[in-house]
Amino acid sequence: DADVTQTPRNRITKTGKRIMLECSQTKGHDRMYWYRQDPGLGLRLIYYSFDVKDINKGEISDGYSVSRQAQAKFSLSLESAIPNQTALYFCATSEAGWYNEQFFGPGTRLTVL
Amino acid sequence: SQKIEQNSEALNIQEGKTATLTCNYTNYSPAYLQWYRQDPGRGPVFLLLIRENEKEKRKERLKVTFDTTLKQSLFHITASQPADSATYLCALDYSGGGADGLTFGKGTHLIIQP
Fold it and tell me: Is-contact B109 B11, C-beta < 8 A?
């Protein structure tokens, strides 16, 4: 079974709808991250969490919110989706401390019409 | 803010040759630098990490160098194979503790021709 899972894998929605993307991990990591990837722009950090009580904004947090329900679960919400939020979204995890790699989920392809 | 530059054009290499990818950054040097591989439609996969006080790191056919004077990292794949074809991402962290997550370059698409 995959260590980092994301649901749904694909989603098509309409402008103005509320959308939640979910991420679960079995690696036991404290740190979790949400990134989005757009063609030509690379991966950009949306939000990150170092533990259940710690949530931080990343480079592009406007229009998004997150919830860390447990150590293993980190959800990303789009309160009112807009077309320029169409992208590939990745969740990642890492251990606490220095010099640690990140482990990425398989991604969620979101299309906002 | 920090910027990372990777060759935006695809890099075509003949099988068996050494592929060299470049990652340049601006402003101050990070505590470490990481390289990831990404296949189409999939999440990035970690390959190597090199710390600011290290000049070179190796893993099997992979080698990474880190020159803080030039503000540059080079990623080498020796004896390249068609299976090495993918997009390679450079990523920087400044605190070493992941305080700001990772900042990624846009990636270089590597194509190994049989």
Answer: yes
Does residue A85 sit in helix, strand or coil? Answer: helix
SS3 A56: strand
Q: Which two tokens stand for residue B99?
A: 């305080």
- Which of B24, B103, B93, B101 minimizes the C-alpha distance to B65? B24
B60-97 pLDDT per residue, tens: 999 999 998 899 999 999 999 999 999 999 998 765 55
Q: Give the mutation candidate from B3, B47, B106, B109 for the A interface (greatest A CB count, under 10 A).
A: B106
Distance from C-alpha of B79 to C-alpha of B63, rounded to nearest angstrom: 12
pLDDT at A2 exceeding the cut of 80: no
Closest residue in B to A105 (Cα–Cα): B43
Report the chain B residue with the minimal C-alpha distance to residue A57.
B100
Q: Do the chains contact at A101 and B106, CB–CB below 8 Å?
A: no
Cis peptide before B40 (omega within 30 of 0): no
B48 close to B35: Cβ distance less than 8 angstroms: yes
Mean confidence (pLDDT) of chain B: 90
- Is residue B34 within 8 A of residue B46, CB to CB? The reply is yes
Q: Taking CA atoms, what residue in B is nearest to A90?
A: B43
Q: Does A34 touch chain B (CB under 8 A)?
A: no
CA atoms within 13 A on the CB side of A106: 9
Tell me, yes or no, if B46 comes closer than 8 A to chain A by beta carbon. yes
- Beta-bridge mates of residue B112: B13
